[in-house]
Amino acid sequence: MSYLDENAIPLSIDLYELTMGASYHALGMDGRATFSLFVRSLPPGRSFLVVAGVEDALRRLENLRFDERALEYIATLPQVRPDFVEYLRSFRFEGDVWAVPEGSIVFPNEPVLEITASIIHGQIAEPVVMNALHYPTLVATKAARCVLAAQGKPLFDFGLRRAPEIDGGLAAARACYLAGFSGTSNVLAGKVYGIPVVGTMAHSFVESFPNERLAFEGFVSTFPHRITLLIDTYDVLMGAQHVVEVSRKFAGTGKQISAVRIDSGDLEALSRQVRKLLDSEGLQDIRIMASGGLDEYEIDRLLRNGAPIDSFGVGTRVVTAEDAPVLDMSYKLVQFDGRPKLKLSEGKRTIVGAKQLWRRIDTTGLYAEDMISGREEQAPDDGEWLPLLRPMMKAGRITESFDLEEARRQHAREVERLPSHLRDIHSVGEYKVTLSSQLQERQRLAEEMIAQEEGLAAKPQR
């Protein structure tokens, strides 16, 4: 869901969508076209991607209009023909969309979303859907890796302050929750998406009191329940001792400290020392949360080394997808007026036609391989294959209902079905993706046709 002014959405496109649209319109080119969105290659260190942002993409398309203010501005652009500005006055996206469900796991060159519409509508949709999918997919993939590393321990999104704008913070919180995080610090995300909202305190609260113990007493006395105290403002072990003292003071009052948070220092060593101190004072029920510069690698290291940490607050490195901040995501014309279309550029060859994505499940219930076929093809007959692309929009109207909780559960089931070598965050696993024999032949014929029409020597398929 975007909190941008809705009037900004139609102008959040690249100028060349308008210049191409104006040319199509002037030339009378209004045939049906299919565009395919996919990721050419995985970022470094990734074995799979987690798709997020599909719902937002569809809602943007459904509400895409050019109001008077937008048209007035477009009319000032010398690159856009006046007759096309008039065409846009009655514009409403009227295409069909097939997409994989939110939370799906996908691999390189697989169709994530395909649009079939008049070529003008399909062209204008490009930045709308790419912008909706790119960032959430980056974050969801990073978050899913953190979930794998956490071994079932709760993770919480703390990334709002360093997310790209308010909309970015919302998208990140949703993507993290979709991928298995347990909650977010982002209050707006709680309101909009129903994500559990969590919060502790900042160091400034402690610093504003004469001393740390008074700060803890003040917070406990005013906070209603599930109290978490931040203990690393001055000295972690002294902070833990203050927690013991404050816990005793409020014993029997209904005010119970449920957790402490360590946000800096040697988290492994400090968590051990704090756990030992709390346990020695009979406070085994107080949990330890760690935060501060965490990602999947640090979480994995801490837990492999036996750090007694019960939950993690994760922010900057996830919402910025720090180690892999961009996807090679593309949106390409693959069919127009009933004819296959493609690029032949070196390293950027595209797969023709409207497609379906099939996934085979082996006898143990794990994912074994994927196959890309023509949209009209039936399931292969050599095992259990699941179709991933679903019709989600018809004639510009959303036909699929969206439930974030169900998408979250579905994503968890997908992760459980991943082979172990793809779940390993420290290595890049290979996964088999092929084209159906029919699609291979269609691709071969299309490449030969284009090469002949353009006077090129036929290029071998890669």
State the main characteristics.
EC 6.3.4.21, TIM Barrel, nicotinate phosphoribosyltransferase, 462 residues, seven-stranded antiparallel β-sheet, single chain, nicotinate phosphoribosyltransferase activity, six-stranded parallel β-sheet, 16 helices, alpha/beta, Nicotinate_pribotase-like_C
In short:
Belongs to the NAPRTase family. The protein is α/β, with parallel strands linked by helices and 462 residues long.
Main β-sheet: number of strands, strand sense, barrel status? 7 strands, antiparallel
Unreliable sequence segments: none
> How widely separated are the two ends?
39 Å
- Write the CATH architecture name of the domain at 31-62 and 95-135 and 327-453: Alpha-Beta Barrel
Strand content: 15-25%
CATH topology of the domain at 31-62 and 95-135 and 327-453: nicotinate phosphoribosyltransferase
Give the beta-strand count.
Answer: 19
Question: What does this molecule look like?
Answer:
- This protein has 462 residues and is an alpha/beta fold.
- It contains 16 helices and 19 strands.
- The strands form 4 sheets. The protein has a 7-stranded antiparallel beta sheet.
- Strand 6, helix 6 (165-178) and strand 7 (183-184) form a beta-alpha-beta unit.
- Helix 5 (119-150) crosses helix 6, helix 5 runs parallel beside helix 12 (296-304) and helix 10 (236-249) packs parallel to helix 11.
- The radius of gyration is 26 Å and the shape is elongated.
- Keywords: Glycosyltransferase, Ligase, Phosphoprotein, Pyridine nucleotide biosynthesis, Transferase.
- It is an enzyme of class 6 (ligase).
